[in-house]
Amino acid sequence: MSLIEIAYEIYKQTTSLVRPTATRRDPTAMDLSYAFQDSSTWRKDGWGEYTITSIVLDLGVSSDISSPFISTDSKQRRKMAINQAQDQGLDDEISDLEERLENARARRVLATGNAPFQGPSNPIPVHALLLLSDSALPLGGFAYSNGLESYLAHLKLRGRIANPEAAFDSFLTLSIACMASTSLPYLLAAYRQPEMLKTIDNDLDASTPCVVAQRASLAQGRALLGVWERSFRVSYTPASDAAAVTAVKSLESISAGLKSRNNPEEGLGPNGHLAPLWAVVSRAMGLTAQQTAYLHMVNHAKAVLSAAVRSSVIGPYMAQSILASQRLQEMISHRIEREWDTPIDRAGQLVPAMDLWVGRHELLYSRIFNS
User: Fold this and answer.
1) 8 A C-beta contact, residue 200 and residue 190
2) What is the pLDDT of residues 188-226, one digit of tens each?
3) What pTM was estimated for this model as a whole?
4) Do 344 and 203 meet the contact criterion of CB atoms below 8 Å apart?
5) What is the DSSP annotation of 156-202?
6) Element spanning 25, H or E
7) Angle at 131 between CA 129 and CA 137, to 5 degrees
8) ∠ CA 190-191-193 to the nearest 5 degrees?
9) Which of 61, 64, 211, 367 has the fewest CB neighbours in a 10 Å radius?
């Protein structure tokens, strides 16, 4: 009996072991009943010795059968094909199970209405933003009216304060524009080059002609430096960010310079203005340049609105409405965009009258804010 006849007899006895689905060109999964119906097509279609090898391996017959139809390469190819098919099948099954698991979790969330907790992608800048935007941050910014009290007093003298809300709206717009043009170039320069903090701080001091505004900036800047040393420095000691490490070293240097000055009124050594110190502290705490500039401007707007509430110009709810308005957001964003690439030698006062209002504040007969 020939090998083909033996294989066919084994096939008839073990048909349940053979896979029923196949194509004519895939001998690894062919229907043997079809193949035996027309054995003359094996060599014509190119199956040849590989066909017999497939039959023997599929039926579990030893691969050591001596036959001119079976070769070692054919058996190796057959085994590799089987292993690849098994690996692919496992990968497909794993992918299917993972997809079904995700779908099941999504259905459970929809059914219960409770989404799993997901914290912020980078919690450190978020926490730093909350710390620096806190109204309880002891900088003393709310002790100043930023010129609002003097502005209102001078309007009363001229009889032009028929509508206090409209007058305040005009002042807020001018104040934000002036703060952006005079401080943002120095703030962004210090953020981008924290190692130049002393130079930038000195340039800002020399470029601030209004003595009252200069004193307010120095008081708040030194207060921020004190908060950094006593509260934030322990928690924010970056080791991987080279710029943040440089920022910390610059803060230490300017702090040492301020402590070593014999007479702060002499103007020797560092000064400690708010804008550059705010930038370097924010850099050390992991904030971006955009976040640093925006937060600085928002805090200024909050200080002006607080002064308006305490001056009885607007109510607290109106102040919060203005602070949350889209108009204020767009105004701040526009000013940041305008000053984003402004060098410090192009910084300047947009509204000269603002320096007059701020400077004449200490000449008022009675006042409720610091001068």
Assistant:
1) yes
2) 999 999 999 999 999 999 998 888 888 889 999 999 999
3) 0.65
4) yes
5) HHTT--S-HHHHHHHHHHHHHHHHHHHHHHHHHHHHH-GGGHHHHHH
6) none
7) 130
8) 60
9) 64
